[in-house]
Amino acid sequence: MHRLAAGDAVYTARPRSAFAPVATARHHLLVAAGIGITPMLSHARAAVERGSDASLLYAYRPGAGAHVAEARKLLGPALTECTDRGHFQEQLREKLHNQRIGTHLYACGPAAFMDAVLEQAMELGWPKSRLHSEPFGTPELDQGQPFTAHLARSGVTVEVPADISLLESLEKAGKSVPNMCRKGVCGECVLPVLRGTPHHRDLYLGDTEKAANTTMMCCVSRSLDKDLELDL
Ligand code: FES
Predict the structure, then answer these.
(1) What span, in angstroms and rounded, lies between the C-alpha atoms of 86 and 62?
(2) What is the rounded average pLDDT of the residues 178-187?
(3) What percent of the chain has pLDDT over 70?
(4) Does 179 sit in the ligand 1 pocket, CB within 6 Å?
(5) pTM over cut 0.85
(6) Which residues, at least 6 apart from 227, have a Cβ–Cβ distance to it below 8 Å?
(7) Span 199-220, mean pLDDT?
(8) Ligand 1 within 6 A of 177 CB?
(9) Which range has the worst mean pLDDT, 71-75, 107-111, 191-195?
């Protein structure tokens, strides 16, 4: 952006969401804390536009709610506002207990808040496939160990130094890999793994996918083995 001058032509694409409503959900249960309401407003607007069923449980400190007026307008009685922890816990438990089959849960807020909401849902038997969350930020990652990536299709070998990501190393080697967030969140930079064990550090793949070790997010994930073979 800072290198552009007035009149330059640039290629742009529409924004893509890594936290979009699931089209097949029978109900969208939105749970937000503080500024975590931001993506939920988009969910609420989408629900109104598409005529789908959504409700929002919104926790905020007294006087510190964001976009409350719009949320009230969009959702009416389907919005539950909580300004104290006890009330929120009570409402959350009640809503997690009493959802019809086919409901998807979406959580956004501070990491500890989201972990608590998702853990509670899992304890109550919600399948992971129905749980979605949008983190504010990503954890700081250490620089990792060096390893060698072997690109099976092109026959190229790429050394990945300790403090450089696999994605950057591939780019330096002239390989173009689609990417967007470069933080392990969006899923865009997924690469198929043919040999070796990836060190998964992303927030995109589920536990089952990580355990299968057949794909990895090359922007943040590395290798537990000295050598990793990729289908690239
Ligand atoms: S670029 Fe988004 S997960 Fe890697």
Answers:
(1) 14
(2) 89
(3) 100
(4) yes
(5) no
(6) 147, 148, 149, 150, 195, 196
(7) 94
(8) no
(9) 107-111
Closest atom, ligand 1, to C-alpha of 204 = 3
Q: Is 158 in the pocket of ligand 1 (CB under 6 A)?
A: no
pLDDT tens, 113-164? 999 999 999 999 999 899 999 887 777 899 999 999 999 999 999 999 999 9
Three state DSSP letters for 136-194: CCCCCCCCCCCEEEEECCCCEEEEECCCCCHHHHHHHCCCCCCCCCCCCCCCCCEEEEE
Fold of 27-134: Rossmann fold (3.40.50)
pLDDT class for 216, splitting at 50, 70, 90? Answer: very high
Match domain 147-230 to its CATH number in 1.10.443.10, 3.60.130.10, 3.40.50.2000, 3.10.20.30: 3.10.20.30
User: Does residue 17 contact residue 41 with C-beta atoms inside 8 Å?
Assistant: no
Q: How far apart are CA 143 and CA 146, in angstroms?
A: 9
Task: Please report, for the chain, the start and end positions of each structural domain, with discontinuous segments joined by +.
Answer: 27-134, 147-230
Beta bridge partners of 148: 159, 227
